[in-house]
Amino acid sequence: MKRTVVSLVAGMLGLQACGEADSGKVTAPPTERLVQFCASEAEDYHDGFCTDYLLGYAYALDGRSGSGVCVPDGIGVRQLRDVAIRYLRDHPDAQQQDASIAIPAALSAGFPCNG
Fold this sequence. Notes:
The chain is mainly α and 115 residues long. It is built from five helices and no strands.
């Protein structure tokens, strides 16, 4: 639970940097930008933002009724990132959506609940 809160807070702080800072609103980053951040192999701000954003969604949605996301035990952060980014690259239309819509879709496609 503590990791979930930390991931969500870190993601929200990073969102302000990507969102509409001038309006004062916290918004989801453009999915195209998130894909660029996640493509970084360097362990830097972009990589950290990407993994925290994805982890926040994964922890929030995993096994929740109606989410369609069931992340199996033993899935690492890099594997989670790879599955999400592969989905987004294979679905260019998803890159035109807000990340708050595209990421849950990517996670449910990559880690569907069976049954």
